[in-house]
Amino acid sequence: MKQGITDTPFYFTSDVLKGDNVKYSERRLGDLKSVFADEESWEAMDKDTLAYKVSSLEIAPQGTPGDLYMGITYLYPGKVGKEYFMTKGHFHHNRECTEFYWGVSGEGMLILMDEDRNVWAERMGPGTLHYIPPRVAHRVANTGSEILVFAASWPSNAGHDYETIAREGFAKRLLEINGKPELV
Ligand code: PAN
Ligand code: ZN
Fold this sequence. Notes:
By secondary structure, this protein is mainly β.
């Protein structure tokens, strides 16, 4: 039972999430097979290249209704062919679960797709805040030349459905065309 005044157990400075039980994971290009359209360019790249890393704070066991998680993602700049480095992307397994993303540093785009496969995107940068509605798949692309840092908070019973995106993909891709990001 907690009592009195303590120091904060967790730290979320501008771009670091740390503390007890903060989990760390990373995705290298080799973990992102079939994610990018240009498989030939992907084949030619070093599979050890770090694409992104995530620190997350998950206090309640996964599946607990009513609890919240938070995480911070560091997405490296780069392209596979014309396509920006991006996260795998997912629907929440529990489709009703929503999420907040907010931009910390760098430049990117939050790509969203509803269940009718309508796709849209929101520019991300320092201080941008994004609400991801129910039943909307989400992925982030780094469109800049610096690392893109963004934080997220989602319900502990959301779960991640990566399979649907692995099977069906997003209906549009974010490519660099004439030096600018375009949803194609
Ligand atoms: C985020 C993402 C994180 C990595 O915490 O999990 O940015 O992206 P992928 O999970 O698509 O690889 C989130 O959306 N949690 O629900
Ligand atoms: Zn999510």
